[in-house]
Amino acid sequence: MYIYRSTINTLVLILLPALGGMWTLQTGMLNISQEGSMLVAAFFAVFGSYIFSSFWMGLFFAIIASLVFNLIYALFCVNLRANIWVIGMALNILASSLTILLLKSIFGVKGSFTSDRIQQIPFVHLGNLGIFNGVFNDFSSIVWLTLILVILFKYIDSHTTFGLHLKAAGKNWRALDSAGVSSIKVRYMSILINAVLVGISGAYLSIGYLKLFNKDMSAGRGWIAVAAVIFGNGNFTWTIIATVAFGFMDALGISLQTYGLNSNLTMMFPYLAIVAALIYQGVKSSKEKAIEE
Amino acid sequence: MSEKYRGFLIVVISFFLSLVLGGFLIMLYKVSPIEGYKVMIFGALGSRYMIYSTLARMVPILLTGLAIAISFHAGIWNIGAQGQLYLAAFVVAAMGVSFHDIPTAIYLTLGVALGLAIGGLWAWLPGYLRVKYNVNEVVLTIMLNSIAIYFTTYMTNGPFRTSQGSLGATNVIDKGMWFNHISPLSNLNTGVFVAIVAVALIVYLMLFAKHGYEWKMMRLNPRFSVYGGVSVKQNMILAMVISGMLAGLAGMLLVMGDYHRFLNGISPGYSWTGMILAMMVNYDPIGVIITSFIYAVMTSGGLRMELILGIPQELVQIIFVASVMFVTAGYALANKVANRMQEEG
Amino acid sequence: MSEIIRFNSVTKKFGKVVAVNSVDLSIKSGEIHSVIGENGAGKTTLMHLLYGMYKPDSGKIFVRAKEVNFSSPKDAIKDEIGMVHQNFMLIDDFTVYENVVLGAEPHHFISFDREKAKRTVAKLAKEYKMEIDVNEIVGSLSVGLQQKVEILKLLYRNASILIFDEPTAVLTPQESETLFNTLRKFKAFGKTVIFISHKLKEVKEISDRVSVMRNGKLLDTFKNENLSEIDLAKMIAGREIQNPAAVSSKKGETILKINDLTIIGDKGIPAVKGLSLDVSRGEIVGIAGVVGNGQSELEEALVGMRKIANGKIEFKGVDIGKMSVRKRREFGIGYIPEDRIRTGLAPIASVLENVIMGHQNEREFSARLDFMKRKRARYFANQLVNEYRIVCKSVDEQVGTLSGGNMQKVVIAREFAHDVDLLIVSQPTRGVDVGGIEFIHKKILDMKKSGKAVLLISSDLDEILLLSDRIVVMYEGQIVHSTSTKDADLQKIGLAMLGMRS
């Protein structure tokens, strides 16, 4: 039960950016600045929640911060056609420095900031459910929101014209443009939707279960999401499967610490799992190819 | 205007613009930008001791910068310099605390060789997987970073925990393995000469050798290189391994020269810094030498700026990231090529 | 018949090049109007102006007597104008019906009504007698069928003015005939057709009226029946057309022997199946065929860029099937690839860097310790630029900024500078202007004269007929027809390209 609950809790963190990233990838824009956007969102969630003592404002600030970061990414990578890796890495590094700078300048602390004035995102208590208490009760409202979003995304992905346009933009944007649909607009849409999701996930990171911001507190979660996106390669089901698997390994690593395993060893779990998964995927697909590189 | 000259101009203008941006940020702290930059430069170059520590700071940044430059230059993305640095540094330290009474000359050689080997090996793995199975090397190296860092942290908290007080470090390594400090006041040590040799080799390889040309073409169009008879697979792995060796060298020098032991936080993001610098100058090795010097000056001065004026030293990093952005935008705007290519197909 | 489109002294410049020079043109409703001219005469640009892909620098365009100012194809589509491009704008992974309705999908509340889309598209195809399965994945269709999908896209959007840009360039003679029937059907339904081509016969066959363009200018418009092919040809070229008299040379020993070669394509199925072919010194062997019948895979396999699954490639008596690209180059194979931007060049790199590729291991340019003689390379690059009259500011200029013809000259200069015995030349003049084409053809014939073996792959049948000594036709990875050029029968070649034996 403990592993179940902590899997759900970490899963949300990865699932939101994975869903958003899946769509940007479908339009041909792999977004690797997820880690940075998440970190900045986490900081501004604490900032907003602290200033106004309201989690709503925390969420709002987090989403705005994430939007700004993603707009920079979009401007460079969609409009200027700059290299996604250069801009993505630059944004990730910027996020780390910027949040430390802001911590020092605004709150006058070095590594982390916490306060009672910070309001958490509320939990959902469904009343007494008997034996199902552990299964459904007292999850963060973000968990339920994520569940709704997953279903919504599934529907949009396979049953709407927007879903069709996303894929068209990635596969042949000229064809989409010539059909009278602006591929740039479609790409911007996917990036902005991703920004909102990453913003929520960042807020969940800092004011979901905690009331604190730590420097570099995203700790690779954004990268795990990117790995899941790459593994899923734009396919909804595979992206979800990869996310759940990686999230489970992450939670498993954290849980096993309580059984006395060294935390530094168990923290390696999700990363080892991803390396294994990527190698598996590579071996599988390279067998299907005969072309010499 | 020739390409080289144009590139140089774009970098210089971008850097100037980001210094102006930095000036505005400094003004937010109610300090005049000129005063801020003055404190910064004085703090880095104001005395012999300061110059020494600035140079000491420059060495790992320069090496990781070149590590990134050489792999990016060849079109393979080694984001794993951090992990390669950590693992090499740790393994060298592990040898240094485990074996004693080996003649200094041999011990130093062994240490250098081991550092290079471990760094190279930890880079070979993703390079091989990329080439053989087309596994995305960016995600792979990021994951390998985390694995290397957690692993070394585990070792310093477990089997190799120090018996000499401070936590999160190994014991001091055998003296036979030390590169001695040049002055007692800073971390600058004789290992710098090893670094100079390495830098010279890399500059030659990238700018004057046939491999440098082939790597560049691999980045600009891998299919074209295959067509031209370049063995792209071998060259990719080679660039990756050399990149890892440089990162390993940086880690090894930090252990054998600067600290004489392995610490958990031995690299405060050197590889990320190196990446910014390499991207800023479009992977030109001479450019990396120049910018890593400027960066070292600004960060070691940045410490002083934080102490005296209360402006966080992270400002320096932000200035450089802004520079990368400006450079990228500059190239994108100046390059009409991309637009043409998209028209033709 | 009333006028439906009018160009009023329309001009469009790209940098210093005047692509369209003060053109006046009137198109009548319900006619088939051809615009004819050599490559680079400005036909395509003129149509792109009408279709809203570019804006004219000066002049006016009227559609149905109303001045229009399209800023994108979207506006043109609204005015019932549709265009079938040279390069199809299709999404290979999507089905036929998805491609057709893309951008104007039928809705059912917020969801995409796939059933309705399928029904509508199938009905449309039937109406115009096009046989096509709307559920097929477009990437698996033949070029002829893909073109039909493009046409369906226009019809689905109610286009009444249809522009076809060199539609037959990729078709076999028989497929072209089917297309012409469709065009006549459009005319019968009252639609206006603008047909762009540089092929005289087709224009004569299909048009009501013909407009001739040369160097960006529109010379005049004629009624079809008042014209002869020879008049047209003179006007297009501005001079008498000369066929390069087939250069006779002595056929030497057989140098390349391909035996029972099988190659697996990207989709995992065989792209070349049991192909055998010989090429001798001093001859040009032309491979004709519709694009996508294994030619790309064959050329890649010959130079070592693609593995072979079965069979043997023997060059100068040695089995080279497992040799690396570099070894094969050093052994005497030169290669002009079909796609110069993707394969033959690094567009972002300089002319200098591009012409050295493949030469970098030669003594002339490399010394000990991996040193590269860059000064020597610069001298070499300047030499080639002069010899091949490559127009560029300096050898440091990026290749991607050159014109299509000059880019191709860079590739050709580089490959012809090798002392090779066999040249594999694929689509050498695709997208090259007239002057460039002549120059390149002459160079290829020079190579043959000097006793080299040339394997020419081209989807342009005229080019094959012009240059080759022997012609083979490839269809679905096999050679289905083989003839000497002087005995060539166009009818038979056309049928063979379609996979039908006469």
Written description of the protein model:
The complex is a heterotrimer of chains A (293), B (345) and C (502). Chain A is mainly alpha-helical. Chain A has helices spanning 2-26, 34-52, 55-79, 84-107, 133-136, 141-159, 161-171, 173-178, 183-207, 221-232, 236-256, 263-266, 269-288; strands spanning 112-114, 123-124, 139-140, 212-214. Chain A has a domain at 10-122 and 138-217. In chain A, α3 runs antiparallel to α4 and α10 (221-232) runs parallel beside α13 (269-288). Chain B is mainly α and 345 residues long. Chain B has one domain: ABC transporter involved in vitamin B12 uptake, BtuC (Orthogonal Bundle). Chain B has helices at 3-28, 33-45, 48-73, 81-98, 104-133, 137-157, 191-208, 210-220, 222-227, 232-259, 270-280, 285-309, 314-334, 337-344. In chain B, α3 (48-73) runs parallel beside α7 (191-208) and α4 runs antiparallel to α5 (104-133). Chain C has two domains: 3-237, P-loop containing nucleotide triphosphate hydrolases (Rossmann fold, 3-Layer(aba) Sandwich); 254-497, Rossmann fold (3-Layer(aba) Sandwich). Chain C has 17 helices and 22 strands. In chain C, α14 (404-416) packs parallel to α15. The mean pLDDT of chain C is 88. Classes of the chains: A mainly alpha (293), B mainly alpha (345), C alpha/beta (502).
Topology record:
The complex is a heterotrimer of chains A (293), B (345) and C (502).
Chain A: H1 2-26, H2 34-52, H3 55-79, H4 84-107, E1 112-114, E2 123-124, H5 133-136, E3 139-140, H6 141-159, H7 161-171, H8 173-178, H9 183-207, E4 212-214, H10 221-232, H11 236-256, H12 263-266, H13 269-288
Antiparallel strand pairs in A: 1-4, 2-3
Chain B: H1 3-28, H2 33-45, H3 48-73, H4 81-98, H5 104-133, H6 137-157, H7 191-208, H8 210-220, H9 222-227, H10 232-259, H11 270-280, H12 285-309, H13 314-334, H14 337-344
Helix pairs in contact in B: 1-2, 1-13, 2-12, 3-7, 3-10, 3-11, 3-12, 4-5, 4-6, 4-10, 5-6, 5-10, 7-8, 7-10, 8-10, 11-12, 11-13, 12-13
Chain C: E1 3-14, E2 17-28, E3 32-36, H1 43-50, E4 58-63, E5 66-68, H2 73-78, E6 81-84, H3 96-101, E7 107-108, E8 111-112, H4 114-127, H5 143-156, E9 161-165, H6 173-188, E10 192-197, H7 200-206, E11 209-214, E12 217-223, H8 229-237, E13 254-264, E14 270-280, E15 284-288, H9 295-303, E16 310-315, E17 318-319, H10 325-331, E18 333-336, H11 340-344, H12 351-356, H13 374-387, H14 404-416, E19 422-426, H15 434-449, E20 453-457, H16 461-467, E21 470-475, E22 478-484, H17 490-497
Parallel strand pairs in C: 3-10, 3-11, 6-9, 9-10, 15-20, 15-21, 18-19, 19-20
Antiparallel strand pairs in C: 1-2, 1-4, 4-5, 7-8, 11-12, 13-14, 13-16, 16-17, 21-22
Helix pairs in contact in C: 14-15
